[in-house]
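Regression test case RT-17, inverse folding.

Input:
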């Protein structure tokens, strides 16, 4: 089940790379969203399955192929076992570390145990374009509304292009600030709009 969930997220992310489009928020979020002093604009919003709704936001004039910052909201209108989802993400980065010497992952649990933060570094050296270090911070959060349960994975990615060693040092210095920003970010109210799967 969880392998299917994250496969859907991966497929969704890849399809977003094709083009930056203006779209209405299926989660009824404001557009743009302000995050850490930067305005992020909705690039595409889709219902990936009966239970998964995904949106990505990037700063103005950026593209998904070579962004410097990215916000992703993946919302499930069903109950998800949070600890299992967190563990799967951590294991994926740990496996990557065998081929990526910059890959490092950390897990932080909120004091009340209702949220988890997974943050990690990875590197990429694409065939075309500049190499980059990418820092990601994922926030896993469960919601309850009466008997209805839902689950959100909110993630923020920041890339620094160029020499990998110096880029890794530059991002490492920003980690504490980027972590605090994610933890303190007030998630907009989620109201799923009517949508047709795959549209």
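Golden output:
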């Amino acid at each position: 089940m969880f392998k299917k969930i994250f496969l859907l997220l991966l497929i969704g992310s890849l399809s977003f790379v094709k083009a930056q489009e203006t779209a209405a928020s299926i989660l009824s979020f404001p557009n743009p969203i302000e995050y850490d002093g930067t305005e992020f604009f909705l690039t595409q919003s889709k219902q990936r399955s009966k239970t998964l709704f995904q949106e990505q936001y990037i700063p103005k004039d950026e593209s998904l192929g070579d962004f410097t910052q990215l916000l992703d909201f993946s919302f499930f209108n069903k109950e998800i076992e949070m600890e299992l989802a967190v563990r799967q993400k951590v294991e994926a980065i740990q496996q990557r570390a065998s081929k990526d010497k910059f890959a490092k992952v950390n897990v932080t649990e909120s004091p009340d145990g209702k949220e988890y933060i997974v943050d990690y570094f990875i590197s990429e050296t694409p065939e075309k374009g500049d190499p980059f270090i990418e820092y990601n911070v994922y926030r896993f959060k469960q919601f309850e509304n009466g008997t209805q349960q839902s689950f959100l994975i909110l993630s923020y990615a920041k890339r620094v292009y160029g020499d990998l060693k110096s880029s890794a040092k530059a991002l490492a210095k920003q980690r504490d600030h980027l972590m605090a920003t994610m933890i303190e970010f007030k998630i907009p109210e989620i109201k799923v709009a009517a949508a047709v799967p795959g549209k």
